[in-house]
Amino acid sequence: MLKPLRWLARRFLALMLAAVILFGWILNPPTTWTIVSEGVSTPRKWTRAADIAPVMLRSVVAAEDANFCRHWGFDMAEIRRVIARGESRGASTLTQQTAKNVYLWQGRSWVRKALETAYTPMIEALWSKRRILEVYLNVAEFGPGVFGIHAAAAHHFGTTPDKLSARQAAALAAVLPAPKTRAAQTRSARARAIADGAATIQRDGRAACFQDG
């Protein structure tokens, strides 16, 4: 009984690894479970990291995962901090969120979390940090039916990803934790804090792993 189960487990992990290689090196994810299930209100268009304003990359890191360049997929210091404080919020990194958004589904379950935990180190091992951010920004939801940075820039600010200002980038990053209820407001307190954080991680080197050149 155990031998067939081990065989199935190895084959399943091999399929997961193949999927990580496919979307890391060969193809851009054409869609996700979330996009298909929720529908698209603003046209999507894949945007390369090179065609996204660098401040947008720094802003999403500052907002969602300030230690992105310093962990291997799981921010253990943040996890310990959340546990010590008894907080209910999660401590998911951008890599974990990318694994969930690309390969899995929304909602909480032990099955989904276990698969996310398996995908995360594979992505960290096989993708560059810059590729993780590129994929994340192209599949993340920035408003009801607004998926990807190209649609977000057009929908919220009538511009393209390469022309986003620091304030606009911070406002878009501020939407990410709750895209269905938050508005992209450049003057909100959270957007201002994210803009400051983006400047800080550029100065202190925490953006070095994904900055071009």
UniProtKB/TrEMBL annotation:
It comes from the Bacteria. GO terms for cellular component: peptidoglycan-based cell wall; plasma membrane. Residues 41-192 form the Glycosyl transferase family domain. It catalyses: [GlcNAc-(1->4)-Mur2Ac(oyl-L-Ala-gamma-D-Glu-L-Lys-D-Ala-D-Ala)](n)-di-trans,octa-cis-undecaprenyl diphosphate + beta-D-GlcNAc-(1->4)-Mur2Ac(oyl-L-Ala-gamma-D-Glu-L-Lys-D-Ala-D-Ala)-di-trans,octa-cis-undecaprenyl diphosphate = [GlcNAc-(1->4)-Mur2Ac(oyl-L-Ala-gamma-D-Glu-L-Lys-D-Ala-D-Ala)](n+1)-di-trans,octa-cis-undecaprenyl diphosphate + di-trans,octa-cis-undecaprenyl diphosphate + H(+). Peptidoglycan polymerase that catalyzes glycan chain elongation from lipid-linked precursors. Its EC number is 2.4.99.28. It comes from Paracoccus chinensis. The keyword Ligase does not apply. It is found in: Cell inner membrane. Its main location: membrane. The gene is mtgA. Keywords: Cell inner membrane, Cell membrane, Cell shape, Cell wall biogenesis/degradation, Glycosyltransferase, Membrane, Peptidoglycan synthesis, Transferase, Transmembrane, Transmembrane helix. It is a single-pass membrane protein. The lineage of its organism: Bacteria, Pseudomonadati, Pseudomonadota, Alphaproteobacteria, Rhodobacterales. This is Biosynthetic peptidoglycan transglycosylase.
